[in-house]
Specification:
The protein is mainly alpha-helical. The protein folds into 2 domains: 148 residues, Arp2/3 complex 21 kDa subunit ARPC3 (Orthogonal Bundle), CATH 1.10.1760; 107 residues, no CATH class. The chain is 82% helix and 0% strand. Keywords: Membrane, Transmembrane, Transmembrane helix.
């Protein structure tokens, strides 16, 4: 009886998966949402029946993907199913939302790396080069329009942009990590929304203001900063490592700074509109980001929020 229930549930979820896959492949705008929701059937099935049963669902879903959408559909099926398996297993174990998000990001990242390698080795396609060429074509068209309108500095601006574009190759690891995180974050939001409607237990996200990154990140940041002062030669492995780690660590310190601002405003009972406004302004005013990043560094290194809490309790 139990096996029959598992099979019936699996068949129903496979039907939902196929529908989502078809919408992803053939309906442009709605397909973006269904693309993010492809993980949901695998999460539900794995959370209810365990990871071993989830693997069987992955295999069947892969076969159906090839039959329905050609082998290209596997580029959607494999990431969604493997991430769904990981998320479902952690939800079954009642893991924290940060753990689920981290696992989903990691599995998406592995899938993206695999897809990138396969595209280069088997099909001789470098997505970064394709993207760069598309951007160059767009910039050339913009330059032609600007020149025809009498803007003489258009060529110089294009040269500056061309130099910046060259760094995209070096920043490929960072782009893959950020893409994986964004994909995992929005997929998790959709998944949790649906799981709650199904009355399935999912641990809530802790408030953003409570986010405190490990203190060890500060040491990594210091090491990377020292390495960057050594000015490694462009194109070397050390150059790529330092560039990518610098970008990621600076981003994390900035996130920590935002977390502290939300914490401080909550502690002082300041309206949420203030920190939200600061977040928006940081995208418009670059120096503000540096200040927020410094706040994040101080918060991690000197346990700033703990000191403020003690002072606040002492009053």
């Amino acid at each position: 009886m139990k096996e029959t229930k598992h099979i019936t549930e699996g068949a129903a979820l496979l039907g939902i998966y196929v529908l989502l896959l078809l919408m992803t492949l053939f309906i442009p705008i709605i397909g973006l949402v269904t693309f993010l929701a492809l993980v949901v059937p695998f999460v539900i099935y794995t959370a209810r029946n365990g990871w071993k049963s989830g693997i069987w669902l992955i295999v069947v879903a892969g076969v159906l993907s090839v039959v329905i959408g050609s082998p290209v559909a596997l580029t959607f099926s494999i990431p969604a199913s493997t991430v769904g398996l990981a998320m479902g297993h952690l939800i079954q174990k009642n893991a924290s939302r940060y753990a689920i998000l981290g696992a989903a990001t990691g599995v998406f990242l592995l899938n993206y790396i695999l897809a990138y390698v396969v595209a280069i080795v088997l099909f001789n396609i470098d997505f970064i080069e394709v993207l760069q060429e598309m951007i160059r074509e767009s910039m050339r068209a913009s330059e032609a329009i600007a020149t025809s309108l009498g803007q003489e500095n258009a060529k110089e601006a294009l040269e500056v942009f061309e130099n910046a574009l060259g760094y995209t190759t070096y920043l490929l690891p960072t782009m893959l990590v950020l893409t994986s995180f964004v994909h995992a974050f929005f997929s998790q939001l959709i998944t949790v929304f649906i799981l709650k409607r199904l009355k399935m237990k999912v641990s809530p996200f802790p408030p953003f203001r409570e986010l405190v990154l490990p203190k060890s990140l500060l040491w990594y940041y210091l090491i990377v900063l020292i390495l960057s002062l050594m000015a490694p030669e462009e194109g070397t492995t050390l150059f790529m490592v330092v560039l990518n780690l610098s970008f990621i660590l600076m981003l994390l310190m900035t996130v920590q700074g935002f977390s502290f601002i939300f914490f401080f405003c909550h502690l002082k009972k300041i309206s949420k509109a203030i920190p939200i406004t600061l977040v928006i302004l940081s995208f418009l005013i670059t120096p503000l980001v540096y200040i927020i990043r410094m706040i994040g560094i101080i918060d991690i290194g000197f346990q700033l929020r703990e000191r403020i809490q003690r002072n606040n309790q002492g009053k």
